[in-house]
Amino acid sequence: MYQELKQACYEANMQLPKLGLVLFTFGNASVVDRERRVFAIKPSGVPYETLRPEDIVIVDFQNNIVEGTKRPSSDTKTHALLYSHWDSIGGIVHTHSTYATAWAQTQLDIPILGTTHADHLTVDVPCAPPMDDASIQGDYEHQTGWQIINEFQQRGLTPEEVEMVLVSNHAPFTWGKTVEKAVYNSAVLEEVARMAYLSCTLRPGLPRLKDALIRKHYERKHGANSYYGQS
Amino acid sequence: MYQELKQACYEANMQLPKLGLVLFTFGNASVVDRERRVFAIKPSGVPYETLRPEDIVIVDFQNNIVEGTKRPSSDTKTHALLYSHWDSIGGIVHTHSTYATAWAQTQLDIPILGTTHADHLTVDVPCAPPMDDASIQGDYEHQTGWQIINEFQQRGLTPEEVEMVLVSNHAPFTWGKTVEKAVYNSAVLEEVARMAYLSCTLRPGLPRLKDALIRKHYERKHGANSYYGQS
Amino acid sequence: MYQELKQACYEANMQLPKLGLVLFTFGNASVVDRERRVFAIKPSGVPYETLRPEDIVIVDFQNNIVEGTKRPSSDTKTHALLYSHWDSIGGIVHTHSTYATAWAQTQLDIPILGTTHADHLTVDVPCAPPMDDASIQGDYEHQTGWQIINEFQQRGLTPEEVEMVLVSNHAPFTWGKTVEKAVYNSAVLEEVARMAYLSCTLRPGLPRLKDALIRKHYERKHGANSYYGQS
Amino acid sequence: MYQELKQACYEANMQLPKLGLVLFTFGNASVVDRERRVFAIKPSGVPYETLRPEDIVIVDFQNNIVEGTKRPSSDTKTHALLYSHWDSIGGIVHTHSTYATAWAQTQLDIPILGTTHADHLTVDVPCAPPMDDASIQGDYEHQTGWQIINEFQQRGLTPEEVEMVLVSNHAPFTWGKTVEKAVYNSAVLEEVARMAYLSCTLRPGLPRLKDALIRKHYERKHGANSYYGQS
């Protein structure tokens, strides 16, 4: 019944080790089916080498397992909350990719320093602050979802404009209209994080990209008059 | 009609992922035909895995598409301006290679620190300063070409002596008599940028290469009495 | 007689170059047989490319060769001491993996900065201090074992809770209930060391992970109510 | 006549790209025949992908081409001088490997910080100071040989004890009793340089390895009572 959804989820997950974004089982991708209000997600702790499409778990937005014999990813509640609050997203990817995670460990936003970054988003990559202790001891992965949503709300960001976030002391989450875009964003974030690391250690205190360039590069790819790619 | 030109352009583009210089579609190579005053360039946003020789677009120096069904690279106007002003170059490569781009984000020239650098150029790798806001909001990619040409003029550099440049907050461009040389220069620039990053973070404020060594290593490869390679 | 033990040891050793943890012969893995009180270990200085299961050496806890025609790893006495003092461990891995070794060279613990680390241990990765000169000149590899055991005792750590250590100015050792877990820990340590290197050079003096998060992430994988992986 | 010597030289050169030590043609290996007082060396500027055993050039200690149709490496005179002054070495390797070259660009010795280094040499990796201008403008590659030999003499080092050197603002040279050992030393030097870079940027001003450990690790591999490897 969920054959196609599982297959799409499987293929997205298999891209993560291929792109060098995960070590062992440190990551997961999910795909949503908006009509049936369920999503497909990687099972917890299963190595990518042995993962099969039939291992993928189908979960609803209240975290109930709808289909599947394995336990879903331990990050499932974070995915569920993001899907239920953000109608526009079709897929979510979570990794512990090296440079993005190193930035998350510093609790700093990744400053926008160049056009590689500006081609994808017009603001710094936001780093959601550490959770308070009560939330951590409560429903932790559910609260991680709120941590992200609240941070976006406070900053006035939308998930359509900004398709990535760092969770302080943890790691990145990315998303997109499709899971393919979410996977793409994970790889872009890792590269943007790496370049920003290099620039910031080479010239501490360097200036952010000027506003005119931020707008220009974003419009090349995203504006009404975008002219990047094949239409 | 442009079969050979397209093939040469295709092969040059395919070298970029092989040399580890591009992620996804972040780069492009072009080849000029001086007699017909056109150049072949990668189509915009087409992944390297699916790129075919027949996808290559033929463009003239006024940015008109001469042949091809796809939209050319969004950087096409930069290529066109460089070809029309610099008669001696036969190919151009643009990448967002990691270390060269990190330097561009700092707005700093890459200082000449060793013979790996001096074997290829006798000055720091120039970093053209950020464009003024009016130019950014105008014909941006065309102005990027002027940004490079003006910087060379101000510094008294020629495109024969210096076959690479960083564009501030953006990324590198390289060129050469042939597109093969332009591709080679892209890989050399990335390695020179990496070594300089390491040296500068290990010993901030380190001295540049002494003049006698700069001249000597350059002459080994380029002077009238050059003795590097097979004659 | 020790066919299976040798095979298991061989396979664990062959994982080390595959995971990018060893250059040439700089590493070794061993597997213990608790009933017979012997362990299988890589022969000294044999390249991984030519290593065969029958080359593996069987050694007892007093460092006597029980079976095998080759000289065992020069680190054998360290392995023997750890096995004889720590009943719960089934395998040991020693590498000179790049980032973990770089930390060992600084004589600093690897601070716990994020959940990638906290998913595996709730304290900083301990760095055992340099040995005194008398011990170095004495039975050096045997003393290296004591250096590790004493450090754990002084810090009140157990080998079940903390399955990895850095030896100052030397390199890491990891272990686990099985040798597969010890190999896994070696790769995790290298990645944790790399992320911590990046975070610490990007933001010197950054804070450690808050206690509530440390406990939470550890319990996800290890506590009585753990919910990571398949049960 | 020099078939075997050429083949050995060819095989050593082909190891360099395989070990990740060279980009394009930035490196060369040579092998000496002490009886005939000639050495085999890579031709200049020939890519490794197309290099064939018959392309290798045979040169005597006075830099005369004895056999071969190609021009020998531009570094040939450095090799010749080292062979003629140091009787004990059988092969030489020159690369521009990234981390070793980055250290050479800082004009700093690589400090001995750990046992990975001490297993191979008991002193800092020496960095020969920049050449004076007269020597550069004279017989440059010949003078590079003197730069190395003089530095060893001033420091009281022998080429048997220390099989590697950095030439300031240039790059490393390594050697050994055999060319295989010289190749091995090039890879070891690159890894030692990388680890030292990481340690020094993580904890500037860190202490060198204590003397007792330096001696111990060196003796494990090299002393009269060495016990590393198979005897």
UniProtKB/TrEMBL annotation, chains A, B, C, D:
First-level EC class: isomerase
Example GO molecular function: metal ion binding
Catalyzed reactions: L-ribulose 5-phosphate = D-xylulose 5-phosphate
Alphabetized Pfam families for the sequence: Aldolase_II
SMART domains listed in its UniProt record: Aldolase_II
GO biological process: pentose catabolic process
Superkingdom to which the source organism belongs: Bacteria
Gene Ontology CC terms, in alphabetical order: cytosol
UniProt keyword terms in alphabetical order: Carbohydrate metabolism, Isomerase, Metal-binding, Zinc
EC identifiers of the protein: 5.1.3.4
Cofactor section: Zn(2+)
Annotated InterPro entries: Aldolase_class_II_sugar_metab, Aldolase_II/adducin_N, Aldolase_II/adducin_N_sf
PANTHER family referenced in this protein's UniProt entry, alphabetically: FUCULOSE PHOSPHATE ALDOLASE, L-RIBULOSE-5-PHOSPHATE 4-EPIMERASE SGBE
Record family assignment: Belongs to the aldolase class II family. AraD/FucA subfamily.
Designated name of the protein: L-ribulose-5-phosphate 4-epimerase
